[in-house]
């Protein structure tokens, strides 16, 4: 009976070494092939298709802002860097970037929709606006209708809160044909506003659920109060709604409080 042949240890090591070398060679060839494909000239970015909001941007401005920041081929281009380049362009709020095989990019833009001017808590104006999300952004004010937007003035970072408050109370004043020109929030959390006609109104502290009823009660009784003095609501010079059980108003040539009128 013949015994099984045992492969020598040195032969096993040689076979293993050869197998490893073959695998390494194949891997290096694969890496080299991939690099050649990734760097092939036919995959260089040849064009960018831009869709979406382009009201404030054209091909010239986009090319100047974006093209110098694009590097790489279809496979290697950094989409996050391209997106950041587009979002750095004036008026662009958001950009979605996608690859289009074999050598193009497709970008969809969302522009800022201005709803108000922004003024810092210091009260000094600047070239900033508030978009429909309450975000503050810089823009060329000459590109918009400055007569059609109100102003929000408050601490930095509170644009969304201020826009929420404005949207809550502005319709109440507009229904009385008393459009709001500026809404302000102090560093201590007190709200005030200026009407388009120039009247200054103190609203006090609170969130929209607290301030809105206060404004509603004021406007509901306003016509009755001012009519006692032969005035229209737009005759208000100032009003203070911070009183617990009423409000104080000043009319052109007249000063009174709601409580005093009720006693008469």
Fold topology:
Blueprint: H1 9-38, E1 47-52, H2 59-66, H3 79-87, E2 92-100, E3 104-111, E4 114-120, E5 125-131, E6 136-138, E7 151-154, H4 159-175, E8 180-185, E9 190-195, E10 200-205, H5 208-227, E11 236-240, E12 248-251, E13 254-257, H6 258-263
Parallel strand pairs: 1-3, 4-7, 7-8, 10-11
Antiparallel strand pairs: 2-3, 4-5, 5-6, 8-9, 9-10, 11-12, 12-13
Helix pairs in contact: 4-5
Describe what you observe in this structure.
The chain is of the alpha/beta class. It has 3 domains: 9-38; 45-111, Ubiquitin-like (UB roll); 114-263, Cell division protein FtsQ/DivIB (Rossmann fold, 3-Layer(aba) Sandwich). The protein has 6 helices and 13 strands. A 10-stranded mixed sheet has the order 6-5-4-7-8-9-10-11-12-13. It has a 3-stranded mixed sheet with strand order 1-3-2, covered by helices on one side. It is elongated, with a radius of gyration of 34 Å.
Instruction: Supply the CATH class of the largest domain.
Output: Alpha Beta
CATH architectural label of the largest domain: 3-Layer(aba) Sandwich
What value does the average pLDDT take?
Answer: 85
Instruction: Spell out the CATH superfamily of the largest domain.
Output: Cell division protein FtsQ/DivIB
Predict the CATH topology of the largest domain: Rossmann fold
Q: How widely separated are the two ends? A: 131 Å
Number of helices: 6
Q: What is the number of strand segments? A: 13
**Main sheet specs:** 10 strands, mixed
Strands ordered across the widest β-sheet: 6-5-4-7-8-9-10-11-12-13
Helix share, percent: 25-40%
Give me the strand/helix succession. HEHHEEEEEEHEEEHEEEH
Which structural class matches the secondary elements? Answer: alpha/beta
* Amount of beta strand: 25-35%
* Shape type: elongated
Radius of gyration: 34 Å
**How many domain regions?**
3
> Uncertain segments of ≥5 residues (pLDDT<50)?
258-264
